[in-house]
Amino acid sequence: MKLASLLRLFPLFLLLALAGCNEDRWSWHQRLTLNVDTPAGVKSASSVVSCEAAHLYGAPVLPDAHSFGVGCEGEAIVLEVTAGRYLFALLPQPNAISVFFPGRDRTKVVEKLVKLRETRVLAREQYPRLVTFGDINDPESVKRVDPDDLAASFGPGVRLKSVTLEITDAPVTQGTVEAVLGWIGQANFIVPPDPTDRFGENRVFGQTIMPSDFIDRKTLKKIRDLGN
Amino acid sequence: MTISKELFLAILSMDVYNRGYGAGIADGGKDDLDGLGEIGEIGNARLIDPLFLGRDETALDAWQTASFYALAYTVGAGVAGIDPGTTVISYRGTDAILNNDIWGGSDVINGWGVGPTPDNPRGAAHAGRVCRKRSCAGV
């Protein structure tokens, strides 16, 4: 088929793709909280993120198109466990639909989720990824933290007591990550890739995470643009 | 035993939907971040690490805004019609109709009917950049 003929049909393709497309959206805020036992007592820190769910239906000609998705914006939790030693709970936060309505049809329960004002204690498999830095000013000193063995990272007597998720009206947390990780806004990697490692066989932990695991991509871009 | 070129390329064209942001399936639980992951093997092909190709935070943001996603593979032996060592790039097609903060920009707006130019930030230009990062053999 000639290109000119295809181009003449383009508006029809567009009409078919968009006709009958319906989208429902829901939004909410959720707060994730870490509670850590330390020799100085229990320490807690949390982060509120803004989340949105979208359900797209009715598109007749594009079976590969997404039909349901959830996305959140905000930042990681920052908890100062001992003086100058920080524990971070990375983005994304756990999917609230999975936490509050496990196993249920997402499109049917999201309407109930946004009206909840409830807190749940997370199961172990729902925990976010936890990291710390040997030197807070050196991104390449990032280390994974085992949620079952915080003492290995922070010393004796430090233990993850619980992680909770709450649906809330609280405002989105801003600025706490950047206050501790001053370099995050201008970083394109946490640990740069090895230019000789074509297949990623020798990836170290720091190469598996990105700055947008600490602050959502949209906010990072604003920070970066302000810094330029 | 060799696999036909057409079948092999069809497998890779589907594979790219199951890795990276907005992946269609998961291997680590319901909230899997990157589907099947962005390194490893599938059949006779090895994935080239996107970090090795220079995809950094800025590029990933631009990709998601344009609803663009691609992976590069190095083909091994056993694929009829494709020499071992050939690089194959697989791009996602239309998987986002409307602009959406959750799964990225609209393919209809950013991809359909748009040709690549060096400064065009839309999908086809990202495709060109992925190919130029490493010398690509056309298949």
Beta-strand level of the residues of chain A, as a percent range? 25-35%
* Quaternary organization: heterodimer
Order of helix and strand elements from N to C terminus of chain A: HEEEEEHHEEEHEHH
**What shape does the CA trace of chain B take?**
globular
Point out poorly predicted stretches of chain B.
113-122, 132-139
Summary tags:
heterodimer; A: 228 residues; alpha+beta; five-stranded antiparallel beta sheet; 9 strands; globular; B: 139 residues; four-stranded antiparallel beta sheet; 4 helices; 4 strands; 25% helix; disordered C terminus
Summarize the structure.
The complex is a heterodimer of chains A (228) and B (139). Chain A is an alpha+beta fold and 228 residues long.
What does this protein structure show overall?
The complex is a heterodimer of chains A (228) and B (139). Chain A is an alpha+beta fold and 228 residues long. Chain A is 22% helix and 31% strand. Chain A has six helices and nine strands; from the N terminus they run H-E-E-E-E-E-H-H-E-E-E-H-E-H-H. A five-stranded antiparallel sheet of chain A has the order 3-2-1-9-6. The longest helix of chain A is centred in the N-terminal third of the chain and has 16 residues, at 3-18. Chain B has helices at 5-15, 57-65, 107-110, 123-133, and strands spanning 41-42, 45-48, 70-75, 87-91. The radius of gyration of chain B is 15 Å and the shape is globular. The A-B interface holds A 7, 10, 13-14, 17-18, 21, 23, 52-54, 56, 59, 62, 64-66, 69-71, 73, 92, 94-95, 98, 125, 187-189, 193-195, 197-201, 203, 207, 210-212, 217-218, 220-221, 224 and B 17, 22, 29-31, 33, 38-39, 46-49, 51-52, 56-58, 60-61, 64, 74, 93-98, 100-103, 108, 112-113.
